[in-house]
C-alpha cells in the first residue's frame, strides 16, 4: 500500500496561499495538513478559522487538522463545519480524552491523537481501538523547519507493534523534520502518513518533491 503525504500549509507562502493550495491540488499529495496553534499550548500562534475557511474553499483533498491548542473541545464543531476530515488533538491538552474522541466522531470526522516527543505511546493503549490515527510529533510542536528527533523511530515501531495487536489498520502519522532522507526509514519503522512543511515548500520544485516523497520504490507498508 502507498503511504500518505500531507504537505503542511504552515510552510506555505501566505501571500500566495491560493497558488500553494493549487500546487497541492495538482500534485500527488493526499491531504492538506493544517496546523492550528494558540500561543498557549505551544509558544507560537499560527492561524484559525479565517485561514481554515480559505483553504477549505479551494482545497480538493481532505483537510488534516492538527490542533495545538488547549480546550480543543470548545472548537471541534467549528473545525468540522469548516471542512476538517481528520481532527488531531494533543494527549497533553485533553483531560477527558475519550470524551474528546467521541465528540470528534460525532461531528463526522476521523479522530486522531498527537503525542509530544516526551509522551510515551503506551499511554494510548486503552483508547487505541477508538482512534483512526495517531500523530507522532518528531519535533517539539510550534514551529516548522526543526530537526527530526531520532528517538521518534523507536516510538513509531513501539506504536506499530501495539497497533498490530489492537488495531492493525491504525494510521501512524509523523510530523516534524520529515524529509526525502528519512522517509524510507520511517516507513520501515511503521509510519504510514507523513507531514512535511520545509522539505516541500523549500524545494526548488515542490510538486516534484511531493512525487519523490510519495513514490519510494524500495519500501511499501503492509497492514
Ligand atoms: O506541527 C508542526 C510544527 O508544530 C509541523 O506540522 C510543522 O509544520 C512541520 O514542519 P517541518 O518540520 O516539516 O518543516
TrEMBL record:
GO terms for molecular function: D-ribulose-phosphate 3-epimerase activity; metal ion binding. Binds 1 divalent metal cation per subunit. GO terms for cellular component: cytoplasm. A divalent metal cation binds at residues 33, 35, 66, 175. GO terms for biological process: pentose catabolic process; pentose-phosphate shunt. It catalyses: D-ribulose 5-phosphate = D-xylulose 5-phosphate. The keyword Cell cycle does not apply. It comes from the Bacteria. SUPFAM superfamilies: Ribulose-phoshate binding barrel (SSF51366). Keywords: Carbohydrate metabolism, Cobalt, Isomerase, Manganese, Metal-binding, Zinc. Pfam families: Ribul_P_3_epim (PF00834). The active site is at residues 35, 175. Its cofactor is Zn(2+); Co(2+); Mn(2+); Fe(2+). InterPro entries: Aldolase_TIM (IPR013785), Ribul_P_3_epim (IPR026019), Ribul_P_3_epim-like (IPR000056), RibuloseP-bd_barrel (IPR011060). Pathway: Carbohydrate degradation. Substrate binds at residues 8, 66, 142-145, 175-177. The keyword Zinc applies. Catalyzes the reversible epimerization of D-ribulose 5-phosphate to D-xylulose 5-phosphate. Belongs to the ribulose-phosphate 3-epimerase family. This is Ribulose-phosphate 3-epimerase. The gene is rpe.
